[in-house]
Write a structure and sequence with these properties.
Serine Threonine Protein Phosphatase 5, Tetratricopeptide repeat; Arc Repressor Mutant, subunit A; Rossmann fold; alpha+beta; five-stranded antiparallel beta sheet
Length: about 525
Amino acid sequence: MAVRFLFENYSFDSDRRELRRGAEIVPITPQVFDLLDYLIRNRERVVSKDDLISAVWNGRIVSDAALTTRLNAARTAIGDNGEKQRLIKTLPRKGFRFIGAVEEAQRPAVEPVGSAADSSDSTPSLLSPPRLSIVVLPFTNLSGDPEQDYFVDGVTESLTTDLSCTGLFVIACNSAFSYKGKAIDARQIGRELNVRYMLEGSVQRSGKRLRVNVQLVDAESGHHLWAERFDKPVADLFDMQDEIVSRLANTLDAQLIVAEARRAERSLNPDVMDLYFQGMASLLKGEIPEHLIQARRFFERALVINPRSIGALVGMALADLIMGGALLTDDRATLFSAAETNAIKVLSSAPDHPVAHLVLGSVYISTRRAAQGIAECEQALALDRNLAIAHANIGMAKLYMGRAAETEAHVQEALRLSPRDTFAFSWMTVVGAAKIYLGAYAEAVGWLRRSIEANRNSPIAHFWLAVALGLHGAVGEARTAAKAGLVLDPDFTIRRFRDGAPSDNPTFLANRERVYEGLRMAGVPEG
């Protein structure tokens, strides 16, 4: 039997690496989780700083500031703080102790692989699989070269680690590797590990090419939900491993949200998480007002049920940020203010939430605080290295700081990590804008056409294309592009664009005058 630790209204499951407050999963980074795990298991004694460093950091040198940061994050995750120390107490010059009242609750352990457990489809699960629960099965080495096993296993291990940082419930590698080389039905694995999803894949190296095939499977039905193939020239294997893992992590995040949203649609009485997934799925449909409004409605309903829901608060902040950033309304200040408030609210209870740092950074960048915004985006990347959008936002900040020549490199890094990202079109628009500010109009046209090919429903991309074409001398095409933008956003005007200037940098503002000229040439109303 496996054990969960229960205290106050929290449950802590070290096997599943899951912390819950009531029914809601609390986002927590792996290092903070390990720290909590050690404190709870050793709650009968005071543990020293050296004990924690040895257990959590494997004896590596750790500064007092780093340890304090992780302890504060652990306290915040369980609703404690450094003043009250209701659950984690600091004893000066001695160490730390978990002093909360803990109960140990047993749950059925998973049956081992190949057990005699009933495997019929009608057998009810003893424990419902958590949402967003997944196992990354060991990828298969199809190269016929045993020396490639280290690379293939490295992809599996790195992907498991990276997905664990995103808030997913991911089965640990030691359990996943027990299935290596065994042909077992997906539904059996789902029952044995109590997960909803399974990712399987293969790696094949032939000469100077490397091919990786992956597929996401619904572990309850056995149905294939998504498949992808990466085919690349062999370069540095570790760099290639990082790139494959990053692309998979970014794509999987969106695919799992869509899959959970479909499940939620069938719920007669949707709970907070059902509404959260439906809201996020609406956001993934793109920068269209109706989708953003629909997303906000889902998040608002979730917050009625639980006003402290971290997921719903982050979702609301994202919806407001996107609506304001895409220039879809004149009242951008109110939207940015609301997004900032909700992001700060989340960080007050979950200081290591990467997306909340990302949202806060994006608000800063959009409201004439680009340097602060870059710092927040860098913090988001420190917590989740696969947040491709953070790289793109840093590139946008550089544009606003009058350093447009640096923008493209940051966006290229975002596209490398997540080339098929839902929001990749907006990143391309940022590069197009930077090229306009640099006077490279032909390059700007190329980037903006790529953006529109990726998403034809983004009005701002059409307006930027109109500017680039007009300044490049193709006034007729510029007017056509502007008309396409006005069909999508009939209320767009030069006044709205001017009033939405996100920076007061002199270089940025001087170059922006050409943009107003381009909009006029394309026939955009003054407003």
